[in-house]
Amino acid sequence: MTLLDVFTWIDHLWLGQAIRDSSWLFAFIEVFHLLGLTLLLGSIIVVNLRLLGFGSTRETLAHVAEDTMPWLWVGLLLTIPSGLCMFTAEALKCYENPPFFIKMGLLLLALIFTFTLHRRLTRADENSVSRIWRTLGACISLALWFGVGLAGRAIAFY
Amino acid sequence: MSPLAICQALQDSAIGTSIRESVWVFPIIESVHVLALSLSVGIIIMLDLRLIGAGMRHTSISQIVDGLKPWYLTGFALMFASGALLFWSEAAKAYESGSFRFKMMFLLLAGINALIFEIRYKPTASVWDGKAHTPSGARVVGWCSIVFWIGVIAMGRWTAYGMR
Question: Where are the domains of chain A?
Fold first, then answer.
């Protein structure tokens, strides 16, 4: 079974067909995707600004990370299911769409980075980590997540 | 000159036409408009969630407002600039779109709501800030902000969808 077979099978699922047949369902699902993006990138921005030494600087880094993390999860819970729904409606279009594969690659990297190195960086005692590592971690995190968003936007334009 | 005629003239202007017909400029402006949601509404929603007591419990209100103000103001500046350019290129279509009018209405409500927060609640925030329980009026402002911004985003999505 090739990747094309898998994408074709997904494209023919009833869910994708129902979304394609509806005149408004795709846009409706996309609203949830955008709300999720707002929460997800919003929380990423707040924690990374703190990591860079901006924003809520009177608060400890660990506290800011603890405060924003639940909203990263809510963002993921909104974007991933809505994204999967949109994917079923456009699986075959996505197969020929380089931005889609770039987005999925970046998403995988962003998730791995967030829940491994970035997590350790934000939970560590601030004084034990050098400023260079914190700056680098924040920049990588922002670049990965905004890359996901940009590539996602490019799917529709390609 | 009617508003529609003004919008039509904007849309037909050299700048409006070149944005609309460009291969790269329109997608770039639209990407900025979508991604700057994170800096603008994304940060404001964190503040709202703190106001309604749904999270950000370690961070005080004034801490969020003061520390992040330059960032969300930058976000809103990006949103308005990119939004104005998008409107310029499709002004007449937007003027006639019902969802665009709803979006502007929600935007106005969100703006008034933010003004109420700035005038009525922000000056006294340092008094009730540290407490877990925010004044009920400030909680209402937080809820209204969330609802209005969801309205803006949903109607914005609908505007683009309807004009496709």
Answer: 3-155
